[in-house]
Specification:
The protein is α+β, with helices and mostly antiparallel strands. The protein contains six helices and 20 strands.
Length: 284
């Protein structure tokens, strides 16, 4: 049977302004939003999150990634435009597509579907339109004043990965290593710092191809809870043996309930990730 990994992360609560407006220098920097029910929530794209994972892999394995980002020139560099998932970690994990025409104008597109799937990050709290103002230094003009939409919230997102779909299944461990290490998510990080590391995390290692743990975190008072996850384990739609739960959720009543149901609960995120890596069937 095929082994799958699903991970849902909820970040710490902080002030976010992760997305640019129409472009640098605009006087309004907006947050992307979605509507759910009667409220609006802010969101961060999967591509922005994937960028942070690429950045981590580039930092630890610079000779083994094909696409590298040079912050000095603000440009990407590609080592091999033919792409090789066998040779390069990023080609293997994130996939690629090079759209082009060959001889006689025939389709010669080279592509590989990304094995790592990432959802959009959605805020836990509704957005009520908070805006901050700033101005450039020095002499002021008509365009000196700018405003930026900000949101004090936590974000939640889910990743899915099937290790056997990788050319080198051992690379699945690198993604788990990266989860608490990612740094630059979103575009406005030149002016804002926002932690996208997990405050709490749920990892499911299973033969079930469906995640079941997406959006399992929700705001409960000033804290974060996971009542739907407790229910899914209690009614045995998710086997307790497939779950690892960690972080601040471990110290809440939800963490205690999951532990009583047989879920592996850790207070530390990194200890939980090490436990999940121990469950992976790689190199087989």
């Amino acid at each position: 049977m095929t082994q799958h990994i699903f991970v849902t992360v909820v970040t710490p609560t902080a002030v976010a302004a992760n997305n640019r407006g129409e472009g640098d220098g605009s006087t309004l920097s907006t947050l992307q939003k979605i509507t759910r029910g009667n409220d609006q929530y802010t969101t961060v794209s999967a591509d922005a999150i994937r960028w942070a994972y690429r950045e981590y892999l580039q930092s630890i394995k610079p000779t083994e990634v094909n696409r590298t980002f040079d912050p000095e020139t603000d440009k990407y560099n590609i080592k091999d435009e033919r792409y090789k998932a066998e040779d390069y970690i990023d080609d293997d994990i994130f996939g690629y597509m090079d759209a082009k025409k060959g001889a006689d104008n025939k389709d010669a597109t080279t592509k590989r579907r990304g094995v790592l799937e990432v959802s959009r990050a959605i805020s836990l709290d509704p957005y009520w339109g908070d805006i901050v103002f700033g101005s450039k230094g020095g002499e002021k003009g008509k365009t000196s004043i700018h405003n930026t939409e900000v949101h004090c919230t936590a974000y939640q997102y889910t990743m899915a990965l099937t290790p056997s779909a990788l050319k080198d299944s051992d690379r699945a461990k690198l993604i788990l290593d990266a989860i608490p290490m990612i740094k630059h998510v979103g575009g406005n990080h030149a002016r804002f710092l926002y932690e996208f590391r997990p405050e709490s995390i749920v990892i499911r290692v299973t033969q079930d191809p469906s995640p079941w743990i997406m959006n399992c975190f929700e705001r409960v008072g000033e804290s974060v809870g996971c009542p739907r996850l407790v229910r899914l384990v209690d009614v045995k739609d998710i086997a307790a043996s497939e779950l690892i739960v960690a972080g601040e959720i471990a110290d809440t009543p939800y963490g205690k309930q999951l532990e009583k149901l047989g879920v592996s609960v850790f207070r530390g995120i990194k200890a939980a990730i090490a436990a999940a890596q121990g469950l992976l069937k790689v190199g087989v």
